[in-house]
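User: Okay, second chain of the day. Same drill as before: sequence in, structure tokens out.
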Amino acid sequence: MKKLIALLLAVLMVVGLMACAKDEPAANDPQTDAPAPSTDDAAEPAEEPKDDEPAEPAEPTGSDAKKTIYVLTPNPDHGWTGAIGVFAQEKVDAVNTDGAYNAVLLTSASADEQIAQIEDIVANDPGDGSIAVAMLPQGEAVENAIQQLIDAGIPYTAADRIIASVADAAVSNIKYDNNEIGAAAAYYMVSNGMKEGDKCVVFEGDGSSADTDRTDGFNMYLKGEYEYNGEKIAEPWSDLSSITYSGSLGWSQANCQAFFETYMSDASNADTKYLAGWDDGYVLGTLDALEGSAIDESIKETFLANAPYLTGCGGPEAVYAILRGDSTSYTDITPSFGGIMSVTYPPAMIQDTIQAMIDYLDGKDVLHDNTQSAQCVTSDNVANFVGFE
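Assistant: Same drill. Structure tokens below.
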């Protein structure tokens, strides 16, 4: 019996050894062609790539990282600023599709919100030159925040509302000549008979440089200190007291309507013939007031019988349609006007502002002061222009 048990144990040991040998391939096993495992494998570095196998690219860092351009604009709510938002988004999408840079659009409802956006950008700046800003400032209140960009070494370009104290540090300032826009309105009024002493209303913006420069250009042309279209006024004004300035209307069509309704509530203003606005929303706001019931009908009739002249700025399709004569709005009012004019100020300038930053990051020369010229659009030449929605 003891001999039988010993024999069985011997057989079991042989079978176990054969199973182990089958589970662990030998170093020269032709089915695996793999080296025998070593107890040092975990400590060895990863195998170097062969000459004909490219190494995995390292994640870019610092100056090699894809740069991000933050595009800051007011909320695309309506009118010209609404079109700014549309053009900005279009360019941002194109930049991201191209892939050379990242682009991020940040909109704001107020100067405070835009300041917070800038401060957040500065606070999260990695300091490696990988971020930049292209912006349309909300106004002068953003001045200190822009200075923070400058102090942090973050390059920026600006459109439209150029803040004088920080303008020199910008990569590029893109704008139309706002003095020229104001002068164009004055030129148009004078060309249509406005003389010193005639009542005139100027619908102003928001106190930004775009606004004040337009008012300055208007006044300087009348005083013979500025020219438009290569001409100065033949008989300069010495007294501007017949002009009523609205003060800040915030570029709002509704605010313009309310102001004009209040102005025309005084019957003595019914003989006002010239209305100059720094935004085409003001053209529509004036027409809204005349179409509504807030102005006394007799005052309205006297005003329209005087064949008044009205100007704006920007170029929306709603105004260009009026100039072409194919608008379905205000059809009972606009034929009574002596003329309506819109000065060009394309919102597509925000795309130029973004492109200027791209060119700068690409190492190209960029024009620091990119000031473009304004044109008067009337019923005579509106066919040559395309309005924005």
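Residues 1-63 have pLDDT under 50 and may be disordered.

User: Thanks, on to the next one.
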